[in-house]
Specification:
Radius of gyration: 51 Å
Shape: rod-shaped
Number of helices: 2
Strand content: under 5%
Number of domains: 1
């Protein structure tokens, strides 16, 4: 009978060890699962924050691009008006050159005029 008590005692010990082994295995598996999933969650949060920052910067870039397009269109309008004004200036410069040439000839022609003829020349000139 002592042998059966020893066998029962040994079986109880084996069963207890199996329970302890199962509990220890469950704890180890749980710990490994925890270690693997927590960094993933932390990384997801980290990437989530970075994604928010990227989205914010993307929105700012889009706004700046719209402003740049507006400024570009304003610059084009100013370039067009400058081109028109340059053309007007060129026309005025040509007109001034023609007037200088015309009156330069008149003055050269009139260098030898007598005073009454000079008076008539200037009177005609300033009445225009």
């Amino acid at each position: 009978m002592s042998l059966s008590k020893d066998v029962k005692s040994d079986m109880n010990k084996v069963t207890t060890y199996r329970y302890l082994l199962a509990i220890a295995t469950a704890i180890i598996v749980g710990f490994i699962y925890y270690v693997w999933t927590i960094p993933a969650v932390v990384q997801n949060d980290k990437y989530g924050e970075q994604k928010k920052i990227i989205d914010s910067l993307t929105a700012q870039i889009y706004t700046l691009q719209k402003e740049q397009l507006q400024q570009d269109s304003i610059i084009c309008l100013h370039k067009d008006s400058i081109a028109v004004l340059d053309h007007d200036i060129d026309l005025k410069n040509e007109e001034i050159a023609n007037i200088r040439k015309y009156y330069g000839k008149k003055i050269k022609d009139n260098e030898y005029l007598a005073p009454p003829e000079l008076d008539k020349f200037f009177a005609d000139r300033y009445q225009q």
